[in-house]
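> call design_seq(struct)
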C-alpha cells in the first residue's frame, strides 16, 4: 500500500533525512535508536496518557459549531486544542519529549522559540519534571513577545536572547543547535514542530497524533462514522496539522486542506507561504521546501502571526504537497483577521491568529451540504489580543 508515513531511512518521498554536523551524529543516532522503543513501551504510554488527561485536560472536545456550519453550508466540527493547559497543542509534544529525555538519562533541556509558545510549553514541563531549562529566542521576538518571556522566567527557565541574523526564530534555532553541539551527552533538545533532522518530524507527529486518534473516536460517537470528508489545519512547521491528519493520512476518502500564512500576499515579498514559494533545500537538518534566494540564502518570512513565520516546512507536508495528497492554501493576514472575528462573533471562541488561518481556508473550499469537516483550532487568542484590538472591525 502507498503510504505517506516516514520510511525506514527517515524520508517522506524525497524530503526529510538527517543532515547534521559530525558532532551531533551520535546524538541523533541515539535518538533514532531509542524513540520508537520508548514511545511504544507500556510505561511511557501510561505516564503520557495520564498526564495528557489530568494535566493537559484531554481529550479536547470535538465541538459541532452550528452557526459556523450554517455560514459555510456544511457540517463543521472544531477540534478544541485551544482548551489545553498553556493554551495550544504544543504541550502534547513537550510532555512526550520530556518523558523521553528522562528515560534517556538527560539532565538539561534546551529549546528554541519564536513567538514564545513552544518556549512556554517547554518551560512548563521542565518545572513539572524539575529539569534545567534554557530557551533560545531571537532578540526581536524577546521584545515583541514580552508576556511569554515573563512566563518562561516565572516557570524557572533561562531565556537567552539571540542577536545573530534577523534575531528571530531561524536564528534562535541555529543557536539551540550550537548549544546541543557543545553539550551532546547531557542535553536533550526539544524541537517544537515537525521539523529538524529525522527522527524529530516523525516523533513530533506521533506525539501529536493523539489529536486524530480522538477525532476518530469522537466522530464515531457524534456522527456515526469514524472519518470526516475534510480535515483542515494551519501549518507553521506543521505539528498541529500532522497530529490532526496522522490516522487519516493514508485514507484517501479524507481530503486534507492545509493553510499556510500568505502574509500580505504570496507575490508581495512579505509572505510566509513556504510550501508555495519554497524551493528544495536543507534547513535545520532536513531536506524540505525552503524560502531562499538564488544563492540559497534563507529569506525572511513574514506573517501577522508569529507562530507561522518559519522559512521552512515539515518534510511530511512538503511531500503531501508534491504528491498532491493535500491541498495547500495561502491565507493572507486580512483573511485570517476576518476569520478570527467571524468565529468570535458566531461561536464565542477567540482563536489564536495561527488557527485563524485555518478558519480563513473555509471560504476557499466549495463544500456540499452533507460534508463533514473537522477543523483544528490549534490555540486560543489571548496572546493575540493586542493585534486583534489594533485591527478591530466594526
Ligand atoms: C506554534 C503554533 C502553531 C504553528 O505550529 P505548527 O507546528 O505548525 O502546529 C499553530 N498554532 C498555534 C496556536 C501555535 O502556538
Amino acid at each position: 500500500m502507498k503510504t505517506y508515513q516516514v520510511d525506514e531511512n527517515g524520508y517522506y518521498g524525497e524530503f526529510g533525512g538527517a543532515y547534521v554536523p559530525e558532532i551531533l551524529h551520535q546524538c541523533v543516532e541515539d535518538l533514532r535508536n531509542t524513540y520508537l522503543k520508548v514511545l511504544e513501551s507500556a510505561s511511557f504510554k501510561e505516564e503520557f496518557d495520564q498526564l495528557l488527561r489530568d494535566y493537559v485536560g484531554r481529550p479536547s472536545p470535538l465541538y459541532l459549531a452550528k452557526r459556523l456550519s450554517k455560514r459555510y453550508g456544511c457540517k463543521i466540527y472544531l477540534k478544541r486544542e485551544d482548551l489545553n493547559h498553556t493554551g495550544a497543542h504544543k504541550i502534547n509534544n513537550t510532555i512526550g519529549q520530556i518523558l523521553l529525555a528522562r528515560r534517556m538519562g538527560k539532565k538539561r533541556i534546551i529549546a528554541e522559540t519564536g513567538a514564545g509558545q513552544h518556549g512556554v510549553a517547554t518551560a512548563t514541563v521542565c518545572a513539572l519534571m524539575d529539569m534545567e531549562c534554557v530557551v533560545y529566542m531571537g532578540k526581536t521576538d524577546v521584545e515583541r513577545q514580552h508576556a511569554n518571556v515573563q512566563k518562561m522566567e516565572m516557570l524557572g527557565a533561562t531565556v537567552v536572547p539571540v542577536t545573530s541574523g534577523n534575531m528571530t526564530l531561524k536564528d534562535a534555532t541555529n543557536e539551540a543547535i550550537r548549544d546541543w553541539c557543545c553539550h551532546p551527552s547531557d542535553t536533550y533538545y526539544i524541537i517544537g514542530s515537525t521539523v529538524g533532522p529525522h527522527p524529530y518530524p516523525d516523533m513530533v507527529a506521533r506525539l501529536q497524533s493523539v489529536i486524530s486518534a480522538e477525532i476518530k473516536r469522537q466522530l464515531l460517537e457524534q456522527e456515526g462514522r469514524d472519518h470526516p470528508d475534510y480535515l483542515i489545519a494551519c501549518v507553521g512547521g506543521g505539528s498541529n496539522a500532522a497530529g490532526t491528519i496522522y490516522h487519516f493520512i493514508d485514507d484517501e476518502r479524507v481530503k486534507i486542506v492545509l493553510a499556510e500564512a500568505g502574509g500580505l500576499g504570496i507575490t508581495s515579498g512579505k509572505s510566509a507561504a513556504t510550501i508555495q514559494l519554497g524551493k528544495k533545500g536543507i534547513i535545520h537538518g532536513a531536506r524540505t521546501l525552503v524560502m531562499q534566494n538564488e544563492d540559497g540564502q534563507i529569506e525572511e518570512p513574514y506573517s501577522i502571526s508569529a507562530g507561522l513565520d518559519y522559512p521552512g516546512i515539515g518534510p511530511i507536508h512538503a511531500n503531501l504537497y508534491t504528491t498532491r495528497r493535500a491541498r495547500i492554501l495561502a491565507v493572507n493576514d486580512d483573511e485570517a483577521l476576518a476569520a478570527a472575528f467571524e468565529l468570535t462573533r458566531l461561536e464565542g471562541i477567540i482563536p489564536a491568529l495561527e488557527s485563524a488561518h485555518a478558519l480563513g481556508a473555509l471560504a476557499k473550499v466549495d463544500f456540499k451540504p452533507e460534508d463533514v469537516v473537522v477543523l483544528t483550532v490549534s490555540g486560543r487568542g489571548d496572546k493575540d489580543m493586542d493585534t486583534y484590538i489594533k485591527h478591530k472591525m466594526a
